[in-house]
């Protein structure tokens, strides 16, 4: 099962997992209150998986591509890795399904504290529009499916980006007002 925890405040070894001490685990239910949804899927049969198709249909994830994040396949790899690591938000959902290897998705909670979500093969996550998040590779390589509702827009906005409607809506959602 996917593991998630509150992070420490240390900026040392940014590529390593950062768990607060004592451990402060975060469950799927808490992630759901942040609008973060999770599924475990059968990555070895992603090309023909009724469960994946069902989720895509229900959530209207019409667009799909598979990317391999590694320095030989991803143009501007170093630059992208740095960008992934910067706290940012999008005006649309971010949906990722890990097909090979692993990485860390970090999201901010209601009190602006970082939660680290350790994602590996078979883990699928949806981050809502307007949530601040960042990403770190677990190895120097990861194969992931990117899904999108409609035509993909990969634009991101580094923190602080609080003026965007998507962010304002998300804050309302966190406060139970949306
Ligand atoms: C993004 O916007 O692509 C990210 O936050 C990185 C996650 S998956 C490589
Ligand atoms: Ni992102």
TrEMBL record:
<comment type="subunit">
    <text>Monomer. Interacts with MMP14.</text>
</comment>
<dbReference type="GO" id="GO:0016151">
    <property type="term" value="F:nickel cation binding"/>
</dbReference>
<dbReference type="GO" id="GO:0010308">
    <property type="term" value="F:acireductone dioxygenase (Ni2+-requiring) activity"/>
</dbReference>
<dbReference type="InterPro" id="IPR014710">
    <property type="entry name" value="RmlC-like_jellyroll"/>
</dbReference>
<dbReference type="InterPro" id="IPR027496">
    <property type="entry name" value="ARD_euk"/>
</dbReference>
<keyword id="KW-1003">Cell membrane</keyword>
<dbReference type="GO" id="GO:0010309">
    <property type="term" value="F:acireductone dioxygenase [iron(II)-requiring] activity"/>
</dbReference>
<comment type="similarity">
    <text>Belongs to the acireductone dioxygenase (ARD) family.</text>
</comment>
<dbReference type="GO" id="GO:0019509">
    <property type="term" value="P:L-methionine salvage from methylthioadenosine"/>
</dbReference>
<dbReference type="GO" id="GO:0005634">
    <property type="term" value="C:nucleus"/>
</dbReference>
<feature type="binding site">
    <location>
        <position position="133"/>
    </location>
    <ligand>
        <name>Ni(2+)</name>
    </ligand>
</feature>
<feature type="binding site">
    <location>
        <position position="94"/>
    </location>
    <ligand>
        <name>Ni(2+)</name>
    </ligand>
</feature>
<feature type="binding site">
    <location>
        <position position="88"/>
    </location>
    <ligand>
        <name>Fe(2+)</name>
    </ligand>
</feature>
<feature type="binding site">
    <location>
        <position position="88"/>
    </location>
    <ligand>
        <name>Ni(2+)</name>
    </ligand>
</feature>
<feature type="binding site">
    <location>
        <position position="133"/>
    </location>
    <ligand>
        <name>Fe(2+)</name>
    </ligand>
</feature>
<feature type="binding site">
    <location>
        <position position="90"/>
    </location>
    <ligand>
        <name>Ni(2+)</name>
    </ligand>
</feature>
<dbReference type="InterPro" id="IPR011051">
    <property type="entry name" value="RmlC_Cupin_sf"/>
</dbReference>
<feature type="binding site">
    <location>
        <position position="90"/>
    </location>
    <ligand>
        <name>Fe(2+)</name>
    </ligand>
</feature>
<keyword id="KW-0486">Methionine biosynthesis</keyword>
<keyword id="KW-0560">Oxidoreductase</keyword>
<dbReference type="GO" id="GO:0005886">
    <property type="term" value="C:plasma membrane"/>
</dbReference>
<protein>
    <recommendedName>
        <fullName>Acireductone dioxygenase</fullName>
        <ecNumber>1.13.11.53</ecNumber>
        <ecNumber>1.13.11.54</ecNumber>
    </recommendedName>
</protein>
<keyword id="KW-0223">Dioxygenase</keyword>
<keyword id="KW-0472">Membrane</keyword>
<dbReference type="GO" id="GO:0005506">
    <property type="term" value="F:iron ion binding"/>
</dbReference>
<keyword id="KW-0479">Metal-binding</keyword>
<dbReference type="InterPro" id="IPR004313">
    <property type="entry name" value="ARD"/>
</dbReference>
<keyword id="KW-0539">Nucleus</keyword>
<comment type="pathway">
    <text>Amino-acid biosynthesis; L-methionine biosynthesis via salvage pathway; L-methionine from S-methyl-5-thio-alpha-D-ribose 1-phosphate: step 5/6.</text>
</comment>
<keyword id="KW-0408">Iron</keyword>
<keyword id="KW-0963">Cytoplasm</keyword>
<keyword id="KW-0533">Nickel</keyword>
<feature type="binding site">
    <location>
        <position position="94"/>
    </location>
    <ligand>
        <name>Fe(2+)</name>
    </ligand>
</feature>
<keyword id="KW-0028">Amino-acid biosynthesis</keyword>
<comment type="function">
    <text>Catalyzes 2 different reactions between oxygen and the acireductone 1,2-dihydroxy-3-keto-5-methylthiopentene (DHK-MTPene) depending upon the metal bound in the active site. Fe-containing acireductone dioxygenase (Fe-ARD) produces formate and 2-keto-4-methylthiobutyrate (KMTB), the alpha-ketoacid precursor of methionine in the methionine recycle pathway. Ni-containing acireductone dioxygenase (Ni-ARD) produces methylthiopropionate, carbon monoxide and formate, and does not lie on the methionine recycle pathway. Also down-regulates cell migration mediated by MMP14.</text>
</comment>
<dbReference type="Pfam" id="PF03079">
    <property type="entry name" value="ARD"/>
</dbReference>
<dbReference type="GO" id="GO:0005737">
    <property type="term" value="C:cytoplasm"/>
</dbReference>
